[in-house]
User: Fold these one by one.
Assistant:
Number 1:
Amino acid sequence: MEFQKQEVSVLKKLRAELQERYQNYQAENLKLDMSRGKPCPEQLDLSAGLLTCLTEDDYRARDGIDCRNYGGVEGIPEARELLAPILDVDPQEVIVSGNSSLALMYDLIARALLIGLPSSSMPWGKMPRVKILFPCPGYDRHFAICNQLGIEMIPLELGAAGPDMDEVERLAAGDESIKGIWCVPKYSNPTGITYSDEVVERLAKMKTKAPDFIIIWDNAYAVHHLTDQPVRLKNILAACKEAGNPDRVFLFGSTSKISFAGAGLAMIAGSENNIKWLKKQIIIQTIGPDKLNQLRHVRFFKNFAGIEAHMKKQMAIIKPRFDQVLETLESELGGKGIAEWSKPKGGYFISLNTLEGCAKKVVKMAAEAGVILTQAGATYPYGNDPRDRNIRIAPTFPSPAELKKAMEIVAVCVQLASIEKILSGK
Ligand SMILES: Cc1ncc(COP(=O)(O)O)c(C=O)c1O
């Protein structure tokens, strides 16, 4: 039954029933945290072998390097070989580093501001204004980096095939202070969409007023499929090379949601030129990464096929959780005309859109009934969702039973907030 088409009296009766359900949930004193996309303990257990796969005398990389010692800023060769296929690049085009790709992104932006990129005529920080384009909804920690470092963020609508490229091209071609676009191109956080070939090609080819414009390609969910038919993403580095802009893109990824979120491997990839430049920069910051962890990952996964097989096991654990959320949303909210949600083929999130002006209220009400969601607005720069409707749901950490309860509560809150909105307009 569509809520908008109901008589006031019907809606009021429904509201009373929902309020009773809500109060019953409140009386249960629940504590369910769905705010962050963290792997659940069963997912982490899959990689338990990482803790035992090195022995006392197994500490040398293939080329004889003693992984216990300093050095090897670009990562050991076999770790570069293991991880390069995740980003669809050659091993020499990737640097395997510490445990966090976010830290690598932060460092890239900090370097651009302080030192400048190879293609910069001056450090970004010397310009009066620096702006970055953000297809939205997007990832709150990307926004947090720009916020902290004083970069202006320009939100752009993210559609089913990526950002509106007419708008991206118009903005990038017309404003020298626009220095980049920050993308989660595959199974995006939070909507789960993957950029189309056309979008990738246009990003690689487009004219930019800033000569040092970069694409920050955060491919965090490259191998995180939720179906047996992985979605394919066009190779952006190859597209940039073909378009004559090989240095435009920096690619990022990590094993945070493959092995251990707190003790995985992160990587940055790019053109030969960019890798050469990055190595020179990184050696100032560190005498070398944790190569034992790199060796451990190589011993444990062996090769890319090992990673793919491992991701199937990950899928077997998290798919039922996604299904639980989707089933509960459908049974509680389906056909009511008050919410829409994504049905992702991969990644870590489900994106829920309420009626305009309801998301903040829903998140607050859910919290008051013990369900902690990501803050409303978090998926937009400055915490400002102009339509106040997007809510990010992270299904991986709670158990399926907890998810069912949590989503029932969220659905009751969505219905109550929607009825309030509809009644106020009748
Ligand atoms: C899009 C995206 N990028 C990066 C990260 C964090 O990556 P890392 O653990 O490698 O720092 C996350 C974690 O949720 C994410 O969703």
Note: The CA atoms of residues 2 and 336 lie 4 Å apart.
Number 2:
Amino acid sequence: MNATESRDGQLAQMKALRAHARGGPEQLRYEDAPRPAAPTGSDVCVQVRAAAITFDELTWSETWESDGADRTPVIPSHEVAGVVVATGPDADGFAIGDEVFGLVPFDRDGAAAEYVLVPAANLARKPADVPDVEAAAAVLPALTAWEALDEHARLAAGQRLLVRGGTGGVASFLIQFARAMGVEVTATVRSAASVEAAKQFGAHTVLVGDEPNDIPPATFDAAIDAVGAGTPEWAYRAVRPGGRVITLQEPPDAALAEASGVEAMFFVVSPNAEALERLADVLARGEIDVAIAATYPLSDGQAAYASRSSTRSSGKTVLVVSQS
Ligand SMILES: NC(=O)c1ccc[n+]([C@@H]2O[C@H](COP(=O)([O-])OP(=O)(O)OC[C@H]3O[C@@H](n4cnc5c(N)ncnc54)[C@H](OP(=O)(O)O)[C@@H]3O)[C@@H](O)[C@H]2O)c1
């Protein structure tokens, strides 16, 4: 029996959250969808237990198209934890029954569904003691934070980092990893109610508001915008000449970067087995606080995506698809 067939040989369906047209949470429907085909090549079919949300993914072009071709209807949520139910012939290192976590390529159907296909290179074994919700929630923020810090910010102990938006999923990992490196971390938050959360992640200093007057110019060795699009001018000015500004949602403003004499860059995280193994170790040793804002059943997926605009706790929002 392959992943598309039920026992009587009929094409099998699964429950999924799908959008049939571009847009925001209002487009998402909990409905029947075809199960993925049997995995080929190095793909692995994962029965999803938890799928974490990045709210901005509904704005990413990769969510809606692949190589310029419209992909609707699409299944969102690319951060997954679950169990292997089928493997392609080249999916080395994984067997049916393995508990895994990882990242679904952004231009493929995601994990807001009962089953998802993931390349073996984008998966790692989930440590047995780590809950599925935490494993799914950690994948994208941790890999993004490591790539931002190790490959782009390239900070040394004692240097200063500004994180714009100190309570989000990526920010929570940025702050914890940077602090562990001995970096002095300042975070901005939207309101006074969020100060404690950013401090708990390890920020040495927390500034409230999105136009902080109290940042002297040229103070930081690097700034990372963990809010989203539209990195404000003050974030460029806050960095010393020769320092780095890293944006995560869209390419930086070249004119603002030039005016402040900073190097500015944007990247899209590239999953790799080494980073996933490193994350599995960090999670297994309990070295990181994985902040969960809320969990929702898959059937309430639309509400989960819509929760962005409500008052939320800090950290990741996660869909619980099935229990172990
Ligand atoms: N390039 C990549 O590879 C990559 C990978 C992952 C994520 N990303 C991008 O990184 C960004 C962050 O992702 P995420 O998952 O961490 O998002 P998230 O969990 O939604 O976090 C964004 C945070 O920014 C805060 N915020 C919003 N406006 C603010 C303001 N004016 N001042 C201070 N804080 C503010 C929000 O707080 P409130 O709750 O108060 O609104 C929220 O906590 C997104 O744009 C995402 O697309 C990029």
Note: Residues 1-10 have pLDDT under 50 and may be disordered.
